Task: inverse folding
């Protein structure tokens, strides 16, 4: 396995069923990335440093719905990864409390890839 396979990475998994505007989707993904990075900094500081120095890789993927998103969160948590759910405040497009994004990582790229290899990139 190459060192690239283990370089830290983060994925942001969005819900296709919400059909959010591009701006709303970007804001929700930013919330997830920040929340994951802050949580990881307090628990896995060396990993966050490697992730940051390596370009802070982030990939945005999509799943079908909240059920699939919550299943992914459980699988990520069971694998020992940082996994953070984002719930919207309800000020714009969707009701307050709507689960919008799951952030996973930073974690070794190969571990994340194994978890989300069946998901597609957001287009």
Result:
């Amino acid at each position: 396995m190459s060192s690239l396979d283990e370089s830290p990475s983060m994925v942001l998994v969005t819900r296709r069923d919400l059909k959010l505007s591009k701006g709303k989707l970007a804001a929700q993904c930013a919330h997830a990335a920040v929340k994951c990075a802050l949580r990881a900094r307090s628990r896995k500081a060396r990993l966050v440093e490697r992730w940051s120095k390596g370009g802070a890789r982030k990939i945005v993927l999509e799943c079908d719905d909240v059920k699939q998103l919550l299943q992914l969160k459980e699988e990520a948590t069971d694998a020992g990864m940082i996994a953070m759910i984002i719930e919207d405040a309800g000020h714009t497009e969707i009701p307050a409390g709507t689960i919008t994004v799951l952030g996973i990582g930073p974690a070794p790229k190969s571990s994340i890839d194994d978890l989300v290899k069946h998901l597609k990139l957001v287009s």
